[in-house]
Design brief:
214 residues, mainly beta, Elongation Factor Tu (Ef-tu), domain 3, 2 domains, seven-stranded antiparallel β-sheet, 13 strands, globular
Length: 214
């Protein structure tokens, strides 16, 4: 589990195929900030742009670790096959503060940046989410974008999907990879875990809809 609070900015420095066919995945080599890996062991979970991965090797001298990403994961995520900066978050420990919201590290869909401009001291970010995720998005609700826990400021259902508007404070732009986004860039989205459970409960017991409305 994670919180959506980025703990470091890494960089993908190598992408190597694990086989010769489309059914094979990729091995990523990620370079980290100094001492980032000091408390990381083999098999530990680290989220890369919001996608939970397992550290398969560690090279402390070069501040690097590797992960093996399946073809299925590559097909369902964005930004894991290109060299460059990436958001990192280590798995939540039982005694840590839950500074963002409960994040599983399982990407629910890929959205696209439709607007990213500075507005006053902050930045306005609009993302078009797939229609399948629209019902989980709500005003002042939580959303994870490329691993960052954010608050939805507004939503608008459209023909192509659901466009949500986010406000990014300067600290977020400066300390996460969101500051490198450009118009049209794909981003990993994870909906609020609580919304997922609520949907399941209502589907299994429609009477709960009336009770919640009372």
């Amino acid at each position: 589990m994670f919180t959506g609070i980025i703990t470091g900015l890494g960089r993908i420095v190598a992408v190597n195929a694990l086989g010769s066919s489309s059914t094979h995945g990729k091995r990523l080599t990620i370079e980290c900030p100094p001492h980032y890996l000091d408390d990381v062991g083999l098999g530990d979970s680290i989220a890369l742009n919001g996608a939970c991965m397992t550290a398969t090797s560690l090279n402390l001298d070069h501040k690097q670790f590797t992960v093996d990403v399946s073809a299925e994961s590559l097909d369902k995520t964005a930004g894991l096959t290109e060299l460059g900066v990436i958001n990192l978050e280590k798995a939540l420990r039982a005694h840590d503060r839950l500074g963002g919201h409960i994040v599983s590290g399982h990407v629910d869909g890929v959205g696209f940046v439709t607007y990213f401009e500075q507005v006053g001291e902050s930045w306005g970010l609009n993302v078009m989410a797939p229609k399948t995720l629209a019902k989980y998005l709500a005003y002042k609700g939580s959303i994870t974008i490329n691993g960052v826990s954010l608050t939805v400021n507004s939503i608008e259902d459209q023909e192509l999907g659901c466009e949500m508007r986010i406000n990014l404070i300067p600290h977020t732009v400066e300390n996460t990879a969101l500051g490198t986004l450009k118009l049209g860039d794909p981003v990993n989205l994870e909906i609020d875990l609580i919304a997922r459970y609520v949907e399941r409960m209502l589907k299994s017991d429609p009477q709960q809809v009336g009770k919640l409305a009372e």
